[in-house]
Write a structure and sequence with these properties.
Order of helices and strands: HHHHHHHHHHHHHH
Number of strands: 0
Structural class: mainly alpha
Number of helices: 14
Mean pLDDT: 89
Shape: globular
Low-confidence stretches: 297-306
Number of domains: 1
Radius of gyration: 20 Å
Largest sheet: none
């Protein structure tokens, strides 16, 4: 019988669905109303309260220091990385920043293998490599001229990459320490809210905007918030070295498909290659993980003379 942790596929699938739809429409508040990114962060932080309340109705809030430590670490690396990304984008080109940031699953995989002693088979390794390449290709925007000067934005992009890679590691570490999903997500919500004043300071105060701007932002960011809860649930049941590359590769694929259907936007050649690699790599990782789950356990040898 398959172990319960194989259900990570279900939660990872829901994550891809929610983040894929969110990615397709997340830019609408900025494009329609020039809503600041920092204000989008503020609203996102408050939308986290909704899935947190739902999760904590099922799970008892764990007040142990270890739960607070891993939960805050996951929350601050995720939310802090988001604010660093805004700062990087204010001084550097998005077509270089996003491919750097997209390498965050590499950090997760390295930390999981080195610190959690996760082992993945040859098929899964091939899938991880294909997924990581696809993530970079899917992050290359169209219409770039390839000319840009380096600056502090590059250091900030690297810091975001490390922070987001570490976030998934801390989520997995919390689960291994026996912290339930609701508690981890609750601390992540608290972390996001703690950084709201920082976001307001970065934009110089609350902006003036029509009511449609915050309403549309809330409607899109609730998808982001619920997806983050699904990420916690997937990482509590599956290997971080598999879950992180799979979800980060497939969510942009769904975003591109929806953008094609809604905005009639054709993917670039790099994005097309990325889609193929994402689908192929993710399939290999899922197949390898399921094959491992189905493999019969080797029985312990009987003591001599028994």
């Amino acid at each position: 019988m398959k172990r319960d942790r194989s259900t990570w596929i279900l939660w990872a699938g829901l994550l891809v669905l929610f983040w894929g739809v969110w990615g397709a429409f997340s830019s609408q508040p900025t494009e329609r109303y020039h809503y600041p990114d920092e204000m989008i962060y503020v609203i996102w932080a408050f939308t986290m309260l909704v899935p947190a309340a739902v999760a904590l109705r099922k799970d008892r809030f764990d007040r142990r220091p270890i739960a607070a430590g891993y939960g805050l670490a996951a929350g601050l690396t995720g939310a802090g990385g988001q604010l660093l990304l805004f700062q990087a984008l204010s001084g550097g080109p998005a077509y270089l920043i996003f491919p750097v940031v997209s390498l965050s699953p590499v950090i997760t995989v390295l930390m999981a293998v080195a610190l959690l002693r996760e082992r993945i088979g040859k098929l899964a390794v091939i899938g991880v490599i294909a997924a990581l390449i696809s993530i970079v290709l899917l992050s290359i925007p169209a219409g770039t001229d390839g000319s840009a000067s380096t600056g502090t934005w590059l250091l900030l992009a690297v810091l975001v990459c490390v922070a987001w890679g570490a976030q998934a590691f801390f989520m997995r570490k919390a689960a291994l320490a026996g912290v339930n999903d609701g508690t981890t997500f609750g601390w992540m919500t608290i972390s996001g809210l703690l950084l709201v004043p920082v976001a307001i300071f970065m934009m110089g105060g609350l902006p003036s905007a029509p009511w449609q701007a915050p309403a549309l932002t809330a409607a899109t960011q609730i998808l982001n918030a619920v997806g983050a809860l699904f990420l916690v649930m997937a990482l509590s049941r599956g290997k971080a070295s598999v879950v992180a590359p799979v979800t980060n590769a497939l969510a942009p694929v769904l975003t591109i498909v929806l953008s094609l259907a809604v905005y009639r936007t054709l993917p670039t050649i790099w994005a097309t290659i990325g889609i193929v690699l994402a689908l192929g790599g993710s399939t290999l990782m899922v197949y390898a993980d399921e094959k491992r789950e189905d493999a019969p356990e080797t029985p312990e040898p009987s003591p001599v003379g028994s």
